[in-house]
Amino acid sequence: MSRVRVCFLGTPEFAVTSLKALLEDEHFEVVGVVTQPDRPSGRKLQLTPSPVKVLAQARGLQVLAPESLKKNPLIVEQIRLWGAEVAVVVAFGQILTEDFMKMFNFGAVNVHGSILPRWRGAAPIQRAIEAGDTESGVTLQKMVKKLDAGDIIGMRKISSDQKINAQELHDQLAVLGAELLKVELMDYIRGNLAGVAQNENEVTYAKKIEKSEAEIKWSMSAMQIHNKVRAFTMGPGDFTTWAGKKIKIHRTEVVMESSSVATVSQSGVPTHGDKFGVIQKINSDSLWVQTGDGKLQIFEVQPESRAKMSVADFLKGQSVSVGDRFGL
């Protein structure tokens, strides 16, 4: 069988791993790459190419970076002339039309960072961790008009404990996604593998992460806060206030002990009144903070306009006492 001609569509680092796998596989020929336009980045807001564009240009590939494929028929026609047989989409960041997907003999396939149909949508890795999922994975699906609803071609699953954060899970799933392209995609193209329909009764959605979600609500349980801290390591980062300024919380653990100050509200939900966010204990390397249910142990923080640091270093430069409070 001759090499399969691929049009690759992707943008962030997650997609780079898949593009590298295709470039290194003798069964595929990447004939062109489509990515998002250069975006302002860093403190100086300099226009910066996407990670996928950087790799593609380094490998001498044709690269297109339209603001919108749907609104740029000339770009679509240029892609058609590449003569690709399949479109491989990995975290591209734009909605594709049915007409676009029909341009390719084998259609368009997508590497999605969840165990579909759980966590369709924009932020599957973060939402899975936020929800406390103990199993995660990556799915290769045939793309259709409806969001992440196509037949499943292949899947990889991994266990995830309460310590793994979104960035760590992201890196593991990126590798597994590349494996799907090297194995299941080729089997699918050869006709040895058929897609399996998703169970619509099991669908959940992973909505985009909003900055407004990042402020810690100390009335939540220790486990809920811990999961949010782990989930938002890829951005925007969970924060609270300390001495009137923002401070990000980067690494935590749940202290598995009963909350002696807890009472129960009329709704049956544990509450600690004015104890929310109050420091209960200070260790050499951590702070124990009261939450709506249980205590949260904080190990790593980032004060406003400062670098990330351990709590041990934070304590060297701050006067911190039991009874002091995070948050408003």
Key descriptive features of the protein:
Rossmann fold, elongated, seven-stranded mixed β-sheet, Methionyl-tRNA Fmet Formyltransferase, Chain A, domain 2, 328 residues, six-stranded antiparallel β-sheet, single chain, 8 helices, alpha/beta
Describe this structure in words.
- A seven-stranded mixed β-sheet has the order 5-2-1-6-7-9-10. Strands 12, 13, 16, 17, 18 and 19 form a six-stranded antiparallel β-sheet that branches.
- Strand 18 and strand 19 (309-310) form a beta hairpin.
- Helix 1 (13-23) runs parallel beside helix 2 and helix 5 (124-130) packs antiparallel against helix 7 (222-231).
- The chain contains eight helices and 19 strands.
- The longest helix is centred in the middle third of the chain and has 24 residues, at 166-189.
- The protein is of the alpha/beta class and 328 residues long.
- The protein folds into two domains: 4-206, Rossmann fold (3-Layer(aba) Sandwich); 211-317, Formyl transferase, C-terminal domain (Methionyl-tRNA Fmet Formyltransferase, Chain A, domain 2, Roll), CATH 3.10.25.
